[in-house]
Amino acid sequence: MAELEQKQVGKKGKKKGRKKMSTRIDLTPMVDLGFLLVTFFMLTTTFSKPQTMEINMPVKPKEQLKEEEQNSLKASKAFNILIGADNKLYWYRGLPQEPIEPLSETIFGADGIRKVLLLKNSQIENMVVLIKPTNDANYKNVVDILDEMNICNIQRYALVDITSADLDAIKQFTKGQG
Amino acid sequence: MPKVKVPRKSTLIDMTAMCDVAFLLLTFFMLTTQFKSDESVVVSLPSSISEIKLPDTDILNITITKDGKVFFNIDNKNFARERLLARISEKFPELQFTAAEEKAFVLTGSIGVPLNQLKGYLDLDEPDRKMYDQPGIPIDSTNNELGTWVMQGRLSNPNVRITIKGDRDAPWPIVKKVIDTLQDKNVNKFNLITNLEADPNKLKGV
User: Fold this and answer.
1) I want to staple B76 with a disulfide (CB 3.0 to 4.6 A). Which of A100, A109, A122, B81 is the partner?
2) Is residue B27 in some structural domain?
3) Quick one: which H or E segment has residue B90?
4) pLDDT tens digits, B22-37
5) How high is the mean pLDDT of chain B?
6) Structural domain boundaries in chain A
7) Is A172 helix (H, G, I), strand (E, B) or coil?
């Protein structure tokens, strides 16, 4: 378009006998430069800013206090999640010695632990979730469970060390399954 | 019979529109993205629904790799890195750094060497330093250097926010040790860096 119009202007100029210089500039190098910079920015930058998940740990208590604190938790309110090796997930309610609901296995994701959590959270008032990763768990599993707490809107949860009773319970459970 | 004249068409194309597009894209990329951080360690993050954005400054980052190595990094706001190194050599009189080493420390990213190897690591040339396979910071209970780094890092920048950037497959005992170290230093609030994942509750609402 611009080209056509300018050509006409040029002809008119000729008629008058005055030479008009074309104002057209070759923009090709500028386009080259533009795309070079675009490529550069595409390759050296990242889009998403990383997200963060804020987590508050309780102030580390002295050893004697810890026992008391654990005992003070009402067994009926406790919901334990155990994270095992190879993305295995177990849960039970109550204390490890005398569970209210026995240990059972579940899976990560919407059909597994989330269903259980949502159900129990609506049944039990002031439920407290104790997250106990075993030494074979990996970081992703733990973050997934912490995330599950956010998804299910569970306000009270804690990241707790696993006890030997819990480990025994898992062992027995897997043995029972064959 | 006159010859049929085939009008010669110019092969010139008007580049204005293309130029517009190029610079539009350029502006878009410049405004929406940010530079990749110059990290020597590659970590694939787990994902969560959390939408809190990580600030650019006042960050003390602890990276945990797939094989359980621990790295330490702090941003250089208000020369925090320089002050941190000064504090380290104050605390460990046997570790005195030259001006060149100090400069290298400020410019380098994550630190993943034990303190006794730090000097040697900083003496390396920049390309060599990037290639160097860092063994990670010791976090054993007998020799917990991460604790020292965190402590001194917080002293050199009191506003610092502590973040943990763990690989998906990082073994939990190592992460646990890092968290325990932080708690020993009275850091009970920290951030876990994750990727964004769609929130199923929000998806349902659509």
Assistant:
1) B81
2) no
3) helix B80-91
4) 999 999 988 888 777 6
5) 85
6) 2-44, 75-177
7) helix
**One-letter amino acid for residue A76 of the chain:** S
Give the total number of structural domains in chain B: 1
Residue B164 has pLDDT above 70, yes or no: yes
Residue A46: list chain B partners with CB under 8 A.
Answer: 33-36
Residue B204's φ and ψ, nearest 5 degrees, are -65, -35
Q: Is residue B183 part of a domain?
A: yes
Amino acid identity of residue A64, one-letter, is Q
Please check whether residue B162 touches A, CB under 8 A: no
Q: Which residues contact A155 (CB under 8 A, 6 or more apart)?
A: none
**pLDDT value, residue B24:** 93
Q: CA of B161, closest CA in chain A: separation in Å?
A: 11
Check residue A14 and give its pLDDT.
47
Min Cα separation A174/chain B (Å) = 21
**CB–CB contact A151 B201 (8 Å):** yes
* Inside any domain, residue B192: yes
| Complex ipTM | 0.76
Domain that holds residue B166: 47-196
Q: Give chain A positions within 8 Å (CB) of B197.
A: 147
Chain B: residue nearest A114 by CA? B200
Picking from B12, B26, B34, B188 by the largest number of A CB atoms within 10 A of its own CB, the best residue to mutate is B26
Residues of chain A with pLDDT under 50: 1-14, 64-65
Give me the pLDDT at residue A35, please.
92
A85 interface with B at CB cutoff 8 Å: no
CA distance A17 to chain B (A): 24
The kind and range of the H/E element at A145 are helix A139-151
Chain A residue with CA closest to B193: the answer is A52
Arch. (CATH architecture) of A75-177: 2-Layer Sandwich (3.30)
Q: Please tell me whether residue B127 adopts helix, strand or coil conformation.
A: helix
